[in-house]
Amino acid sequence: MKFSVTQENYTMSAKIEAIGKDLFIEVTGGDTPHIGTVTTLTKNTEIQTIRYPSHDGRFHKDDVLAVRIGKIIQADLPGSCTITAGVHVNHISKKQITVSGQIAQNLGEQIKAWLKQTNFDVPEPVCYSDEENPE
Known about the structure:
Layout: E1 2-7, E2 10-19, E3 22-30, E4 37-42, E5 45-51, H1 63-73, E6 81-88, H2 94-117
Parallel strand pairs: 3-6
Antiparallel strand pairs: 1-2, 2-3, 4-5, 4-6
Helix pairs in contact: 1-2
């Protein structure tokens, strides 16, 4: 599944891959898409992020977008969720920075609606009990 929003002359997209009950969400856009941050969450755990260094040694700030999306969808997650984010707009304007939050909000709401109508009824894993061992 893929959602896209365009405002202020750039597009941000969220591509979603369901892996069983877990979700991998790739948020990219602008002139140079990349992976700047990795954000993880579940319905019942705190959001955590790893930020990668950028070309100039500073750390990417794309987690601002991923966390916004994560907070919107968190209550509806069927399993774990990993969000990679990397949006770069060359010579970004203040207006484009401002709308990036609105775009992420819109993407989060679209993903939330999709989650509510998607069936994640997959078989539960079967594990050995404490009294059992592999043969």
